[in-house]
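Q: Please design a sequence for this.
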């Protein structure tokens, strides 16, 4: 099931004004896929550039066209088990900022066409590279030829590219066997619900998170009732309290006196105001 398949299924349950997922999952991956509904869609830009955590199983000795187990097998290399310390050393080498070649079978566009369409048509194109960051990578288990790893990384990291590169460094090749996203920013595995649970509208209501509970790491500010009308017209409002406690360009959650989220803004220290970026309607 693709990320957009999830959206299609939810749309059949209720006709939302707006709906969107946060952070695409590969079709063969499982795990956390946060979905924003109606006014919550306005928070998506603030929820994308966050740490992700994955549990993955790599298969050593096999390479595939798509860098995962669903692709056509390119090579099979019988290999003896590795010393676990060798694998741990290679994994540790990925810590920090690294450069990845975007997989040929991905939705990244080159010349306005997704890479996977170029690959399927047999037309070779240069795969772009991108810089990502690996914050933590841990070997959980190794039973040759399979190894389980946990990866904490930045947005846009391709775990199957990591598997392929690991196999190349070990000299035997490798492909991604299974992948599960266990964390997306503040959204964790135990907050998730199986998509098959949702049958009727009430099922969705049972698991909705209020917008006020999202983005706890972003500073909040209460807006005086008399100033709310300025926000609605796109005008800035004064920073409440000591403006020196804020950083210029810092994001802010804006609440009314009743504690309802009414907007997202950004601090402008030159004018000592919060400028509205997203107005939340209720």
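A: Design:
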């Amino acid at each position: 099931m693709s990320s957009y398949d999830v959206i299609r299924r939810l749309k059949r349950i209720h006709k939302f004004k707006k709906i969107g997922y946060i952070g695409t999952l590969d079709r063969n991956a499982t795990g956390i896929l946060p979905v924003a509904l109606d006014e919550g869609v306005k928070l998506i830009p603030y929820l994308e550039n966050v740490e992700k955590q994955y549990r993955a199983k790599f298969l050593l000795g096999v390479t595939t066209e798509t860098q995962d187990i669903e692709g056509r097998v390119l090579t099979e290399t019988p290999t003896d088990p590795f010393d676990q310390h060798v694998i741990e050393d290679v994994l540790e080498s990925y810590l920090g900022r690294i450069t990845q070649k975007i997989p040929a079978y991905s939705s990244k566009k080159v010349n306005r066409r997704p890479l996977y369409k170029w690959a399927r048509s047999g037309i070779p194109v240069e795969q772009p590279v991108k810089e990502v960051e690996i914050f933590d990578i841990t070997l959980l288990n190794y039973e040759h030829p399979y190894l389980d790893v946990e990866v904490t990384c930045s947005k846009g990291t391709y775990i199957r590219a990591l598997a392929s590169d690991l196999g190349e460094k070990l000299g035997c090749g490798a492909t991604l066997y299974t992948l599960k996203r266990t964390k997306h920013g503040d959204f964790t595995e135990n907050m998730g619900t199986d998509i098959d649970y949702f049958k009727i509208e009430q099922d969705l209501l049972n698991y909705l998170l209020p917008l006020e509970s999202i983005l706890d790491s972003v500073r909040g500010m209460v807006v005086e009732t008399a100033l709310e009308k300025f926000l609605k017209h796109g005008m800035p409002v004064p920073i409440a309290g000591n403006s020196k406690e804020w950083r210029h360009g810092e994001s802010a959650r804006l609440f009314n006196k009743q504690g309802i989220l009414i907007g997202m803004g950004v601090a402008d220290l030159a004018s000592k105001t919060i400028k509205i970026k997203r107005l939340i309607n209720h």
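Q: Thanks. Anything notable?
A: The chain has a mean pLDDT of 92. The chain has three domains: 3-49+187-212, 52-184, 218-279.
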